[in-house]
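To the wet lab folks,

You asked to see what we're planning to order before we commit. Fair enough. Below is the target structure as tokens, and below that is the sequence we designed to fit it. If anything looks off to you, flag it before the synthesis order goes out.
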């Protein structure tokens, strides 16, 4: 009978969790930049800079 590879499942779960945290961090940074620059009227510049970073 074959054994389950729990360590691999745990590894995949940790990768998914790290990816989710990184995406959330990126969304927060984008939101913060948009809010800061929308007050100064430079929204168009920020969106192009964010797309270059990604």
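Sequence we intend to order:
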């Amino acid at each position: 009978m074959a054994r389950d590879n729990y360590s691999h499942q745990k590894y995949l779960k940790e990768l998914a969790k790290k990816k989710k945290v990184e995406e959330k961090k990126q969304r927060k940074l984008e939101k913060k930049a948009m809010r800061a620059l929308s007050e100064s009227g430079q929204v168009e510049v920020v969106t192009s800079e964010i797309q270059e970073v990604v």
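Structural context that might help your review: The helical segments are 6-40, 43-53. The chain has a mean pLDDT of 81.

Thanks,
Computational group
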